[in-house]
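Colleagues,

Please find the record for the two-part complex below.
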Amino acid sequence: MRIAVTSLGVALTLAVAAACSSASGGGSHPATLVVGEFNPFSGPDAAFGPEMVGGCVPAVRLINADGGVLRHRLTCVEEDTKGDPSDAVTAAEQMMATQTHLIGVLGPSSDEALATVPVLNGGHVPMFADTGQAAFDHSKYPYFWRITPADDVKGYALAIWAHQKGYTRAAAIFGSDVGAQSDVPTLVTAFTKLGGTITYSKPLALQQTSYRTEIENMLAGHPQVIFTEVDPQTGATFLSELQQLHGLIPVIGTEVSLQAPWLRAVKGAIGAGAMVKSFTGMQPYAPANTPGWTVYNKSLLTSGISNPSQWSTDPYSMTYYDGVVVMALAMIAANSTNPSVFNAYITQVTEPGSGKTVVHTYAAGRAALRAGKQIQYVGAGGPIVFNFWHNSTGAFEAAQYVNGQLKVAGTVTAAQIAQLTK
Amino acid sequence: MNTLVPAIGFGIVTASILAVAGVGFTLQFGVTNILNLAFGDIMTAAAFVAYLVTNAGASVWVAMVAGAAFGAVFSVALNRFLYTPFVRRGTRLFGMIIVAIAVSLIVQNGLLAIFGANFFSLRMPRPTSVHVAGMVLTTVQLAIIGIAVATMIVIHLLLRYTKLGKAMRATATDPELARNCGIATDRVIDLAWTISGALCGLAGVILVMNVTAFTDTTGSGFLIPIIAVAVLGGIGQPYGAMLGALVIGLASELAAAVFSPDYKNVVAFVILVIVLLARPQGILSEIATRKEVAA
């Protein structure tokens, strides 16, 4: 009996040791490395998750097709935060406890970042966050990386676009959730700074059966334009009731309103014609047809995920894709799959520098690193230049929904935003 | 002041949807003593049935009938094949709540698996606006108010003037005594689930007609106000639920008009708490004081 127990103990110890060694630097058993898609896949922000899949899966396919990272294959695993901080903390702890070969995560979003960034950072998990919260503008978490613009920047972009269009009176219709509300202060500041007036700004309770009372109150201020970030159901109800009560006025939404579920819900509620006439969405500018984008898009369209083309020009999907590739290249540069080791190499493979080889794909980056060269990865979303606080932001584009496709109507440059933030 | 009158109109629309759902919820609870927390998800499932029906080319009126029929059949089946076996095994109130939550999650995630994480709209003619006594309502909202009023009248006639209604009230008051008096309580319970399910399905369809876009969680998000309506009126009391719906519907819209949209739910539930402090049995309860809530 004692022999049996001892044998079991030895077997368990060996199993644990094998699992640990394969996560920390090219051990003899090439385990499959896990990239956690740490975002809401259910709840009001369930649209975020599929957008992340649209970036992660194409990246992993290309990396695996090129032989993986240090002989390890990669895989994307959905980790549903439900958009709720308490659920997300549990999900983060569970993910770190059960995913032995976790090398990093995409996310968290604004819904759960404040609660989960410290947890993930404490677990030494590199994260390519899609939160826009200004609280991370000066992040001191070494494992936190952000290649999407912060919300305060987004507020500036919305205000500048409205100013360019000649609007001077605006209503701010933002959901009462943390993510949406974090856009409001800089939007109000920027629009006022540009000479405009915010005539109505009250947090909107989400997913109510009616918003007619709120619409009546909003219309009393005679706004020329509506700034908005609400979930698809709320957006559909609000805008259809506005259309019935008064007729639509121009709407400028954040990138949330350019996601497929939002467009589908609102188009169903107000009609495609009204969408074209009244709606513009602002999102981070990621030019298509660049070398990095072409590779991303080709892999995306053949990835086998549902309706892949909807993510072709989605800047968030592109940045998720880039996040995975950057982690993979950092692992090669560090010659380690241990996050505590390769995290420090992330800036080495992204920052520009004289004599560096610019690469647009994982395969090219891997080959250059193997040849002993220093690289700058410029991926699907364009150059990534992290500042001291691991933030990298750029320009914005105004997109309109025409014939089921997003068309770029104009841009707000990084210089314009910088001018306003002086 | 100019926003108060429209707010009353919008409150009546919200109250109408709440009334149909709240009466269905409380009617079933009054007779069976089972807290069906899957009610909101059955509403959503009925909305998806209506979506399929309108997509097949049928009118929204046909979709309403289909949604109500689905709700009725699903609810009866749910009771027959799931809730009743648990009750027969002696599962008590807390256990039944867990079972109901499990059903809720199964239905919700089943819908997610079938239809995906997306938003859907019923195919129906675009509504036009109608001015009524200083209020601007749409033809859809007028239809919802009409449906709710008609439904409440039918429920009133059923409960007051039919043998079934009397049998349901008797079963709700004291099932043992009702059985001893010759009432086929099993049949009455089946019919209570049928009526409740039909109201649930109908409420799901009119809810998504009003909100215009829905997803797999739309109905479950509406469950708390439905429970509030039932509790405010006196749990198990259809007439109380009608009154509770009016109070909650009007209070939430007036709060949004007078204070801020943020206070919409706050004010409604503050009223609920105050009323319950004064009348713990609810506004119109005759039964709740006599009936042990725990099974």
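Residues 4-278 of chain B form a domain with the ABC transporter involved in vitamin B12 uptake, BtuC fold (CATH 1.10.3470).

Comments are welcome before we finalize the supplementary table.
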